[in-house]
Amino acid sequence: MRSRSLLTPLSMMLVAASGVRAAYLASVSALTAARESSTSRRPDHPAGAGLVMDGRLPAYEGVDALYSPRRTVLDTILVEAAREAGAEVRENFRVTQVTSSGGRVTGTRGAARGRPEVTETASLLIGADGKRSLIAGAVGARRYREQPVRSFASYSYWAGVPVTCGELYQRPGRAVAVFPTNDELTMVYAAAPMTEFASARADLEGHYLRTLDLCGDLGKRVRSGRRAERLRATPDQPNTFRCSHGPGWALAGDAGVVMDSVSAQGMTHALRDASHLSAAVVAGLGGSRPLAGALHDHQRRRDRAIRGIYDFTLGLAAFPPGHARPAPLPRRRRRRPAGNRPVPRRLRRHRAAGAVFHPPHRGAHPRLAGHRQAHDSHGEPAVLRPAAT
């Protein structure tokens, strides 16, 4: 599933902070071709079935749009930025073994395509090698908070589909996302419960298109275009945390925490984790504090940052029967508890997750029953209109 990605405002800020400055991104036509998407949400609200909510995302560090570049484009930009910053980049190099001595990881063995194997040593080996991480498996990284696979995902790229902005749909037992991307293509993604995968395998494309037919006129619009690439489908969507460090090794991104793709948080998590882990490594190897302590604190920071959205993602991927969306997150108490007692940690986690999906409005909150007008995050009207049928 690595050919697609979704960059949230937080992701874009992290990309810029990693050394890929806005001016550099703007000069790369491949990424600017991934058109800006102010997300339009088309949900089935219990209080207003069939309504469409149009509005802009709240700005975060000056970014108020989602971007959906192809991973082939984004990865190339990041690799080139690393090379320009002085990193030695070896492409088409396959690691086959993790080396160790006295219970401590010392490096790797591997080879470039068509070349003999070589051994590389390092003070710290960082595995950023995805959900099926060779590094994590070799060191026996402990798993925790593990949950079974809950959904499977299907997606493809389409040409000639009429799309003006990003679209998100929630239907009973379905989640659908539509985003413009590079080369004038549109990425169309659908998720469904894992319990349907065995029957869907007999006709994956039919299952995919029937899902789009549940989303207003989306199925018709997609059929009016042309599928530019094969349909990809996968049930390989584990949900787990791994211990992120040990003697001589550390894990980053999906190698350390992986979750269902339904919430599209993979790139945000990977970029944030890389940023925080880099700071811990600089502190540890730079001598300002012991490396083991810095990596330990990084794992705690990582878990705090992602725990709320991880639980929320599991709820989305479960597709609760009878609901078009998961139960709402707990509301903030109207009165502060007596004294100066801190807010319980569990409630803080829920608030953190809610902030990702339901940022506070500076204007009035949307009211789906009674009034047909809402306000977006800038206090401007957000239009609620009947969905296309």
Q: Can you characterise this structure?
A:
This protein is α+β, with helices and mostly antiparallel strands and 389 residues long. It folds into three domains: 9-75 and 151-234, D-Amino Acid Oxidase, Chain A, domain 2; 90-116, no CATH class; 123-150 and 237-327 and 343-358, FAD/NAD(P)-binding domain, CATH 3.50.50. The protein is built from eleven helices and 19 strands. Strands 1, 2, 8, 9, 10, 11, 12, 13, 18 and 19 form a ten-stranded mixed β-sheet that branches. A three-stranded antiparallel β-sheet has the order 3-4-5. The longest helix has 28 residues, at 291-318. It is globular and about 60 Å long.
CATH class of the largest domain: Alpha Beta
Count of domain modules:
3
Return Rg in Å: 22 Å
- The percentage helix is 25-40%
Largest sheet, in brief, is:
10 strands, mixed
